[in-house]
Design brief:
By secondary structure, the chain is an all-alpha fold. The protein is built from 14 helices and no strands. It folds into two domains: about 60 residues; about 240 residues, no CATH class. Helices cover about 80% and strands about 0% of the residues. The termini are far apart. The C terminus is likely disordered.
Length: about 300
């Protein structure tokens, strides 16, 4: 008898959590009005959820009648989600090999060897560079996406996260498998056993670890980048121009650094394409501009507070 009221209470809480979640897709002013009306009407959680869903669906249908959302979806959301998924999977595979070597096959007798610590530090520096670059790419992708998503930033954020999920589950594995087969056919290489097969025979490294990398180093930075893009209107025009230049250069390096993309585009037949990786190395420092941007914004916000405290 006592479990029935508690079950209804739990369902009511879940319904209102969903109401708040779907209401977040509305503009702030409209969201406050809708939630206020629901609170005053005294409707149940299920009725409130149906009401909010009706409003959200009508607003979203109205948005997709225009051409801008479709253009943003086709040109930015899907391609950026795909490229970042491939780069995320490539980074996670490389990281998994090092993690497996040290976490699953550590010989404790090597701990006293100075060479062991030297190689470990070298590996960690290499991986940190990969992680930082991936995070900056994702942050920049979110930044650019938000700037082209006037009025539909929240919607495009959800679609972008969905594109990342589909890319991680389907797109990246299919691309990597196809590009490797293409490489073997192009260079007439024999099919050899994967030397890292023991690593990816473990479920953690083959299925769980890639998701962790994508959530922490791609989805998280992309969300922060979108928030930064929404706040960019307060920046001076000169600073905005610098940010846009850095962002487009970073997106360019993101595409160029996608594994084996040049081979699929027949770079061997276009000598100028073979020089692109060299150019991206020269522009590598530009890729880290999100760190400088975040630092500058933090200093800018802290400045007036510090002056007021004095």
């Amino acid at each position: 008898m006592g479990s029935e009221p508690s079950r209804k209470s739990i369902m009511r809480r879940i319904s209102w959590l969903l109401v708040d979640s779907f209401a977040a897709l509305l503009d702030p002013g409209e969201r406050e009005v809708v939630l206020g009306d629901l609170a005053e009407s005294g409707e149940s959680g299920g009725e409130a959820l149906r009401g909010v869903l009706g409003v959200v669906v009508r607003r979203q249908l109205a948005i997709w009648v225009a051409w801008r959302p479709w253009l943003t979806l086709i040109i930015l959301v899907i391609p950026l989600g795909f490229f970042l998924s491939v780069l995320s999977r490539s980074t996670s595979d490389e990281s998994a090999v090092y993690a497996w070597m040290y976490a699953n096959n550590l010989d404790w007798s090597l701990v006293t060897n100075r060479g062991f610590w030297y190689v470990l530090a070298e590996c960690m520096a290499l991986l940190f560079g990969r992680w930082l670059t991936l995070g900056c790419w994702a942050w920049t992708a979110g930044f650019v996406l938000s700037r082209f998503s006037k009025g539909i930033a929240r919607l495009n954020g959800i679609l972008f996260l969905l594109a990342l999920a589909v890319g991680e589950a389907v797109g990246a594995p299919a691309y990597i498998a196809y590009s490797l087969n293409y490489l073997h056919r192009l260079l007439h290489l024999p099919s050899l056993a994967n030397p890292n097969a023991p690593v990816f025979a473990l479920t953690f490294y083959s299925a769980i670890f890639p998701v962790i990398i994508q959530v922490i180093l791609v989805a998280g930075p992309a969300i922060y980048g979108m928030r930064a893009g929404m706040q960019m209107a307060s920046l001076p025009k000169a600073a905005g121009a610098v940010c846009w230049t850095a962002a487009f250069v970073t997106i360019g390096t993101l595409i160029i650094e996608t594994p084996r993309l040049g081979l699929l585009l027949n770079a061997l037949d276009h000598k100028w394409m073979l020089k692109l990786p060299q150019i991206t190395r020269l522009l590598q420092l530009v890729t880290y501009w999100p760190a400088l941007y975040s630092l500058a914004i933090a200093v800018r916000h802290r400045g007036p507070k510090s002056a007021a405290a004095v």
